Backbone:
């Protein structure tokens, strides 16, 4: 018996092969940036969110240890000079000031009291 | 009756056709990734967790306070460090066992992971200083090479960075940025043999499907020296993890396995291997992932090393997975402490426990030896005789005679932590 001549055979084979090709595609969708990692409200907050979220979620900020102003300024410089973040000098200063104020040593005591890590 | 097909041919042909049909049907209906999807494509998307599961992680560990539990595609509940690019760490309970399940394996990307991969069109390119440039499909990897399997630990260079004192910038991991799996794939040296390295080959770069969020952000590319790449039979291009395809977030469809070396070299979602006649000067090799060029890989806290080298072989470590830090136990009742130990490839010789702050040590019982690069399970039966506070310390020694120090080291980037771990428990 010649199976090659049977249209039904070809129909099943082609659909089957096409379907198996479909099943070889993997698509993943990552969750949204976690809302529990929001940065603190205050002057400069919007500028931080606008400039920094281009590349990474804000938990990259809020999970850091509380560092002093010079260390935060150096981090912002790393973002602009090493990674090419397009932030002008004035905005970079605003951002560094916001980080030093809200995620600096003075904020460490507050963090310990709140116990929620933010 | 048509004589083109003998009875034997017909049976084989039907079997072949049946296999294709069955595979196709299995691909559509049997594929767990497709549960709930309306199309025939393998869409992997997890619905948001119910509110209870998103509750703040309460933990005795202050570093982990406030970190939510999250479930990413193909993953179970992991501890969130960062959402995007993702850094997810494995809860310590998984380290009672030598093998880390795929869904519990930690995740770390510097730049966005690939979101869509078409396996049928994916090719692993091998180019540069080679006689025969290659474009290997998944089928080529499975058919044209003898497969190999190795059980090996992947630990992030910055695992435990959150415990540094003084603290440093970077991923603020607790101890969960590590895992152990059986990796199956082809030997890198066999692939390089097929391509044929030309004289003068010096370094080999590995690039994955993850892509920078901005053109100015350096692509994540790592390199190995040609000696290790061509001589070490244990360096693999793995397409299976614990017998199954890799989760996308752990490197699907194939990743580099560099046993004994920190995870930064284990490039995920591989797509290109390039042979160079010069030292690779990519950012993630020459500017990042550097350790002090000293025997301890350390400097005085707060200082800068005079010279640095790329991070490489892992230090010997051990962990107490249970009981958890802060647990209350019953005085006079025996408990079994459990955990794992590992090193950079010489294997674990012994693990010892101390309940008196290091004055006395007793040997733990070691579990099965799954290979020099694997987690080694250990267990230790212990009875807190009197009520009170106890500090339980675990110390491993590898077969090269290296042991763990009591005091942690320090370096500016927060790498190589490997000092003795402990838990504090109370007996009542």
Residues:
């Amino acid at each position: 018996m010649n199976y090659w001549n049977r249209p039904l055979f070809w129909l099943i084979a082609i659909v089957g092969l096409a379907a198996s090709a479909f099943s070889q595609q993997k698509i993943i969708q990552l969750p949204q940036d976690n809302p529990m990692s929001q940065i603190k409200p205050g002057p400069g907050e919007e500028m931080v969110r606008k400039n920094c979220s281009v590349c990474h979620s804000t938990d990259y900020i809020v999970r850091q240890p509380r560092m002093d102003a010079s260390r935060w300024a150096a981090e912002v410089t790393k973002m602009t000079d090493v990674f090419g973040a397009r932030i002008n000098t004035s905005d970079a200063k605003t951002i560094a000031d916001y980080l030093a104020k809200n995620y600096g040593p003075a904020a460490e005591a507050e963090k310990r009291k709140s116990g929620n890590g933010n | 009756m048509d004589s083109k097909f003998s009875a034997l041919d017909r049976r084989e042909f039907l079997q072949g056709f049946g296999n294709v049909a069955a595979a196709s049907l299995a691909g559509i209906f049997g594929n767990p990734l497709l549960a709930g999807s309306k199309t025939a494509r393998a869409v992997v998307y997890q619905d948001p967790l119910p509110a209870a599961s998103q509750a703040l992680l309460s933990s005795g560990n202050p570093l982990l306070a406030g970190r939510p539990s999250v479930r990413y595609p193909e993953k179970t509940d992991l501890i969130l460090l960062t959402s995007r690019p993702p850094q997810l760490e494995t809860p310590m309970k998984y380290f009672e066992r030598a093998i880390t399940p795929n869904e519990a394996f930690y995740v770390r990307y510097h730049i966005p992971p690939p979101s869509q991969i078409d396996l049928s069109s994916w090719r692993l390119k091998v180019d540069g200083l080679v006689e025969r440039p290659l474009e290997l499909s998944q089928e080529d990897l499975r058919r044209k090479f003898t497969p190999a399997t190795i059980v090996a630990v992947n630990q992030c260079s910055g695992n435990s960075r959150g415990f540094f004192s003084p603290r440093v910038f970077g991923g603020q991991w607790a101890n969960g940025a590590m895992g152990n799996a059986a990796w199956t794939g082809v030997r890198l040296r066999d692939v390089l043999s097929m391509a044929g390295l030309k004289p003068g080959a010096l370094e080999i770069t590995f690039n994955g499907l993850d892509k920078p969020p901005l053109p100015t952000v350096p692509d994540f590319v790592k390199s190995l020296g040609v000696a290790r790449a061509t001589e070490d039979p244990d360096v693999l291009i793995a397409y299976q993890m614990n017998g199954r395809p890799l989760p996308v977030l752990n490197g699907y469809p194939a990743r580099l396995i560099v046993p004994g070396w920190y995870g930064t070299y284990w490039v995920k979602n591989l797509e290109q291997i390039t042979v160079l006649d010069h030292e690779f000067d990519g950012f993630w090799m020459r500017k990042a992932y550097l350790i002090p060029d000293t025997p301890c890989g350390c400097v005085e806290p707060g200082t800068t090393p005079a010279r640095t080298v790329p991070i490489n072989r892992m230090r010997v470590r051990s962990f107490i997975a249970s009981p958890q830090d802060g647990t209350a136990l019953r005085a006079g009742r025996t408990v079994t402490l459990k955990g794992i130990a590992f090193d950079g490839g010489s294997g674990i010789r012994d693990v010892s426990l101390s309940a008196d702050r290091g004055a006395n040590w007793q040997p733990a019982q070691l579990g099965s030896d799954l290979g020099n690069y694997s987690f080694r399970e250990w267990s230790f039966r212990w009875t807190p005789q009197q009520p009170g506070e106890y500090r339980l310390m675990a110390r491993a020694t590898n077969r090269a005679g290296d042991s763990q120090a009591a005091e942690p080291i320090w370096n500016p980037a927060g790498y190589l932590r490997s000092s003795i771990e402990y838990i504090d428990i109370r007996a009542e």
In short: The two ends of chain B are 87 Å apart (CA to CA). Chain B touches chain A through 66 residues (CB under 8 Å). The mean pLDDT of chain B is 90. The CA atoms of residues 35 and 226 of chain B lie 44 Å apart.
